[in-house]
């Protein structure tokens, strides 16, 4: 079950193009999968031009789908209970936040071609300008910041540092 979190005035056509465009989704325990999360991202990105903003560049959209897949899959695998995703598009790029109920912080493992799985956070770091992890009262949130002019080709593997910060306001 998808529960829309918010619809803000910035989403309306003719709104200030410099204001961030936001969208959030919450899934009940066991009610989501990476495919559903990617569809929510795709719907958000398809909505962007309808607000008078230019479309999100294809390389950024592809990286965003990868990040959403990895972060939501990790939330499903490692955390009981609900999870959610918040997307914020601004002049600085796209911020993808996924929160869950597990207090266990993610680990970026070294690449190992012989290991099945365990590469998700490495991939997220490879395509993100930076990644932040914030503990919450019950759980955590992980935010990947993607920039239109940065990505896997420019930034290189592990380019974004992990920063542990307090809960987002």
Shape: globular
* CA-based gyration radius: 15 Å
Give a short account of the largest sheet.
7 strands, mixed
Give me the side-by-side strand order of the main sheet: 1-2-3-4-6-5-7
Helix content: 25-40%
Topology pattern, helix = H, strand = E: EEHHEEHEEHE
User: How many strands?
Assistant: 7
Number of contiguous helices: 4
Q: First CA to last CA: what distance?
A: 26 Å
Q: Which strand-content bin applies to the residues?
A: 25-35%
Average pLDDT score = 78
Structural class: alpha+beta
* Poorly predicted runs: 1-14, 151-169
Structure summarized in a few sentences:
This protein is 28% helix and 26% strand. The protein is an alpha+beta fold.
Outline the fold blueprint.
Blueprint: E1 2-4, E2 21-27, H1 34-47, H2 58-78, E3 83-90, E4 93-100, H3 120-127, E5 130-136, E6 139-146, H4 152-155, E7 162-164
Parallel strand pairs: 5-7
Antiparallel strand pairs: 1-2, 2-3, 3-4, 4-6, 5-6
Describe this protein's structure.
The protein is α+β, with helices and mostly antiparallel strands and 169 residues long. The protein contains four helices and seven strands. It has helices at 34-47, 58-78, 120-127, 152-155, and strands at 2-4, 21-27, 83-90, 93-100, 130-136, 139-146, 162-164. It has a seven-stranded mixed β-sheet with strand order 1-2-3-4-6-5-7, with helices on one face. Strand 5 (130-136) and strand 6 form a beta hairpin. The protein is globular and about 40 Å long. The relative contact order is 0.15. The model is unreliable at 1-14 and 151-169 (pLDDT under 50).
